[in-house]
Design brief:
The chain has 199 residues and is an alpha+beta fold. It has 2 domains: 47 residues; 149 residues, Jelly Rolls. Helices cover 22% and strands 40% of the residues. It contains 2 helices and 10 strands; from the N terminus they run αββββββββββα. A 5-stranded antiparallel β-sheet has the order 1-4-9-6-7, with no helix packed on it. The chain has a 5-stranded antiparallel β-sheet with strand order 2-3-10-5-8, with no helix packed on it. α1 packs antiparallel against α2. The chain is elongated and about 80 Å long. 28% of the residues are buried.
Length: 199
């Protein structure tokens, strides 16, 4: 009877967690260490930095060394699915000499520029991808002067085409609460049955 109750309890816990939305945060195949940062040309002198999470915050900073160019944070997509993230863009340059966005297989999609700044992290984007695609976050400067532009990214998420995430699922507080409730209910049922057996 004890083993049967344990199996039932495990099933309840798995159901509580598995039925919750998928959440991810630059982990697994998409961990920060698996991305590549580059400046094109090298003299662009852009940079990137991260703030520990959860959720992790990524900032791709464009150059300000008097040379126009792109600063990219790049990864190769491992399977078909969707990339989603929250973003923001800030710059102290004038007009649209600095831009921020993402690149898919060499095609740049602008999210914002100096004249269309978005506070961190008020923007949201979803990008369909397939295995082998080259995806990058980009901060670019067309003049390399008068201040950097910074693209900020957080709540990064990849979900595979079969609704199976390719990276680690991170439970939310609600999910943890459901799991704790399931454990308490299961333990209560086990104790109740044992008391009946003893009496």
């Amino acid at each position: 009877m004890g083993k049967k109750l344990a199996c039932i309890l495990l099933a309840i816990v798995a159901s509580a967690i598995g039925s919750s939305p998928v959440r991810a945060d630059f982990t697994g195949d998409y961990a920060i260490a698996n991305w590549t940062f580059s400046n094109n040309p090298a003299g662009t002198a852009g940079s990137f930095n991260t703030v520990p999470g959860p959720p992790i915050q990524l900032f791709v900073v464009g150059g300000n060394a008097g040379i126009a160019g792109d600063s990219d944070f790049t990864i190769t997509v491992v399977e078909d699915g969707e990339i989603s993230f929250d973003w923001g863009y800030e710059s102290i340059d004038i007009e649209d000499f600095d831009l921020g966005g993402y690149v898919l297989n060499g095609t740049f999609t602008q999210l914002a520029g100096t004249d269309s700044q978005v506070p961190f992290f008020n923007g949201t984007a979803t990008v369909p991808v397939v295995a082998g695609d080259i995806f990058a976050f980009r901060s670019l400067t067309t003049d390399g002067l008068f201040g950097n532009g910074t693209l900020g990214i957080t709540d990064f998420n990849f979900v595979g085409a079969g609704a199976e995430p390719s990276i680690l699922e991170i439970p939310t507080l609600n999910e943890l609460g459901l799991t704790a409730l399931a454990l308490l209910l299961g333990l209560g049922a086990m104790l109740k049955i044992r008391r009946r057996a003893v009496s």
